[in-house]
UniProtKB/TrEMBL annotation:
Its cofactor is Fe(2+). The keyword Membrane does not apply. The keyword Iron-sulfur does not apply. Residues 1-294 form the Biopterin-dependent aromatic amino acid hydroxylase family profile domain. It is an enzyme of class 1 (oxidoreductase). Transmembrane segments: none annotated. It comes from Microtetraspora malaysiensis. Its EC number is 1.14.16.1. This is Phenylalanine 4-monooxygenase.
Amino acid sequence: MFEEAQYFAPVAKREDGSVTVELASSHPGFADAVYRERRNAIAALALNYQPGDPVPHAEYTEEEHQVWALVSRELAAKHQRYAIREFLDATERLGLPKDHIPQLQEVSDRLYPLTGFRYIPAAGLVPLREFYGVLADGYFHSTQYIRHHSVPFYTPEPDIIHEVIGHANTLASDRFAELYRVAGGAARRVESEDALQFVSKVFWFTLEFGVMREASELKAYGAGILSSYGEIEEFRGMDIRPLDLKAMGTTEYDITKYQDVLFEAMSFDQLEDVVGSFWATCDDDSIARLLADG
Ligand code: TIH
Ligand code: FE2
């Protein structure tokens, strides 16, 4: 699930109970009736979901499983070159299928014993405070549909490839899982919308799009880079800035394009010291002070 409101197809539920996902005319699946039918059926599952239920089983077409297989293969090779060690080890630990789309319930069943995280389905946009807040309890809101087969290398719209290959693999790491939890705690603790935005932007520039120095090479750990075999080839050429809370909390970004400003952690320890400690302790006042000076 995406963390901000910019890119989510609206989901409409009719009085007769039918569910329609309103894809924009620019969406690659707009004119594909079969794809739209899948999107509607999958959104209906999430709308009827009650907390505590097992995640409902989603049906995918053979073509959709092929998209997963293609992207998994492309990404596995690129992760070896571009992903940090912590992510590669966690991916190995989770052991997701590569030839078919896993059910979200299966993702949960694998993840929960490792780090206590569970997946719950989301039909569309989840309000920021809810999306982040439940991370503190080990719940991750996830889309269940897959990107259109015509554009497998990148989507501005978070899909199950992003949620699972990007986020679930990351959440199989104890160190990352703790960072997600403290981010959730921060989102619950802060009161003002401005402070929540700040917390959310720090998440964007770290757990979604963070890069890290590892043995003198620049590697990626952000789930948004790690789920796109188009974007992952480009991040080293972007405007790479030092890890800085105020800069991350205030820099604008455009979700519909490859991210051209990225923040580099010098090490995992630095990420935990700077960003983990911030989320673990921040409140409205400390964020206001960060915004006020220099
Ligand atoms: N661009 C990512 C991908 O193609 O996998 C998905 C997203 C991540 C964050 C926002 S959208
Ligand atoms: Fe994400």
